[in-house]
């Protein structure tokens, strides 16, 4: 009878052997693993999308800065489309208010008197020419108007601003092309024009557009990527004139702007300046070309030995003569050719 008991005991012993096989049942749990939670990963895209949306929203904000083109269009459009240039080129200056007023201006260099008590009035919206022989004092006068030289005496008023008391305010209205060109010639043409625009505190987007427009008007587009040191003298003069106009000033002071410039470029520059004047801007220039001055200027002043001998409209100054004849008459014909008789003997 003992044997059956052993059998009974052996049966329960076999049962625990089956129980371990039930333990693997937890394996179905892997489907319930957090792998199902992995799809929650779309959250990162949700986090990344807002920054993209913010960037897209941030981009339109600069547009309002470029959008107020009433001030941007003058410099951009003036060179090529005079009829579309808005009056903002000359700000709120009244047409009857003179652009430049010079009174009692005097300048000496040591014992040499360069400019002696001259008075000039340049109406707004005019093309004003300053002519005279070499050494007459033209460059000295323009340098004092531009703020490059300090006068010994006298007053200069630019667009209603006293240049003696408030030079910074007066210079904001000026664009200057000096006679002796000094520039950062290691910069490219584009860098030089952009530098001038940024110095005038223009928005970068405005500067870039104006640089492109001016380059196209002055036929400098293909040269913008080259250093200014590689430019010819005529090209350098054109890029410096473009730099003087990039901020759409009320008054342009130009010393010999057409010197060393080819006839085609001169014609293009004249068209740009006429467009600028037609919009209300004022040009004050010096030149030795009497025909050019007579052709483009509304008013002219003839300087000799630091003094203004004639001033008024071109018709008033020239009278019954040509402007060149009148100029020679005022300057005086002091040539002495008799002392050069030896020149006719020729050397062997």
UniProtKB/TrEMBL annotation:
InterPro entries linked: AAA+_ATPase, ABC_transporter-like_ATP-bd, ABC_transporter_ATP-binding, P-loop_NTPase
Keywords: Antibiotic resistance, ATP-binding, Nucleotide-binding, Transport
Domain of life: Bacteria
Subcellular location: Cell membrane
Listed Low complexity bias regions: 1-19
Protein's UniProt keywords contain Nucleotide-binding: yes
Entry protein name: ABC transporter domain-containing protein
Higher taxonomy: Bacteria, Bacillati, Actinomycetota, Actinomycetes, Micrococcales
